[in-house]
Design goal:
Two copies of one chain form a homodimer.
Chain A lengths: L14 H17 L6 H8 L3 H7 L3 H15 L10 H18 L1 H13 L4 H25 L8 H21 L10 H13 L5
Chain A binds a DNA duplex through helix 3.
Chain lengths: ~200, ~200
DNA sequence: GTCTATAGATCGATAGAC
DNA sequence: GTCTATCGATCTATAGAC
């Protein structure tokens, strides 16, 4: 903001670097990897194309840097230490609200899936930084609640999260809302019923 | 196969048409929409580029025609009329084996998700022709098995299918197998336990 | 009908001025 | 460091020969 630039050790995140990544994010999230041009990235970031290439080796390097940054920032959901009916419903609603509160997240997931064939290690970055921690948090919670008597908390955690992600995938990402509509609460109710009212034989 | 071409009314599916679509399929499924060039489509189909444009108006038209065809051919899974432990396990294993038996299917789902932002109506074609019938078949089965006493068969069907799709998405499509491994049977066992051993309070 | 050849635009990446 | 200008390749789509 200030015109006089304060003494800023170059260890900090560069200003232009952030500008470029910001512009790159909008382009890649909207048009995908192949559909994004370095010209538009430069224009969107308010710099010249040569400047982009002075900060990133090539298009792949820029894309990888962007995915790394987004994968570090985003958090799927958190689990509060309350009784299951409260905590699990909160997890479900957090997940289902995620695309409303941060609409870029839906596009980010779409982008990762779209490029998971051509950039397998970027998909693995997503799994490692976002999906895995989420599964582990929920697994830990389910295991800690002994009253649930779950024989396999990790499998149940995957079922819980997976069915919610699929719901979002079908209704929002693939625009299935109008074709196979279902109220959010109705789905969550049945999911909670399955996990909570289930006792091993 | 025969050299002498039999009298074939042009109402039937054209030969060149099929060649082009076949070539287009390999290219689009591998490289996505923006990453596919009409030159390569033509080369892969064994025709010239001008011929491609004589059969399809433009790149978007070709892509739409391909998705329409694939969405009509593919079938998610079928439900046999056996007792739940048998029928549901068969559904689960059919779904999880789908990508092994027809590896193009994984790429097809990836492509649909990848382009669901730019081609929403093609995603809806997928939902209408593939996802919705699958959900409806399983819903009908779950509702017909009164011993399950499921209060909301459709929601349960979505949970069942969704958790399986997510498993495939994470383990195979996003290459999460090595990062968060889980045996297929262990996951299916827990999913069946949830659905089968659950009685309403 | 199907081809070759090519137009016109845009791509990723770089050279050279400042 | 950042810019403008540009290269060679590749893109979608079409014109014109056969």
């Amino acid at each position: 903001m200030t015109k006089t630039k304060p003494i800023e050790p170059d260890t900090a995140t560069d200003d232009k670097n952030q500008q470029i990544l910001q512009g790159a994010m909008q382009e890649f999230l909207t048009h995908g990897y192949a559909g994004t041009s370095m010209d538009k990235v430069a224009k969107r970031g308010g710099v010249s194309k040569a400047t982009v290439y002075s900060y990133f080796a090539d298009k792949e390097g820029l894309f990888a840097a962007l995915v790394q940054r987004l994968a570090c920032e985003q958090v799927y959901f958190t689990v509060v230490d309350e009784e299951p009916t409260v905590a699990l419903r909160l997890v479900a609603e957090t997940l289902l609200d995620k695309s409303k509160k941060t609409p870029e997240f839906l596009n980010f997931v779409r982008l990762i899936i779209a490029e998971s064939g051509r950039f397998p290690q970027l998909a693995q970055t997503f799994v490692k930084n976002i999906a895995k921690p989420g599964i582990e948090r929920l697994t830990h919670y389910l295991a800690s609640r002994e009253e649930l008597k779950l024989p396999d908390p990790e499998a149940t955690a995957r079922i819980f999260i997976g069915s919610l992600i699929y719901f979002q995938l079908l209704q929002e990402m693939m625009h299935g809302k109008e074709i196979i509509p279902m109220e959010r609460d109705r789905f969550v109710d049945d999911l909670l019923r399955l996990v909570l009212s289930c006792k091993p034989n």
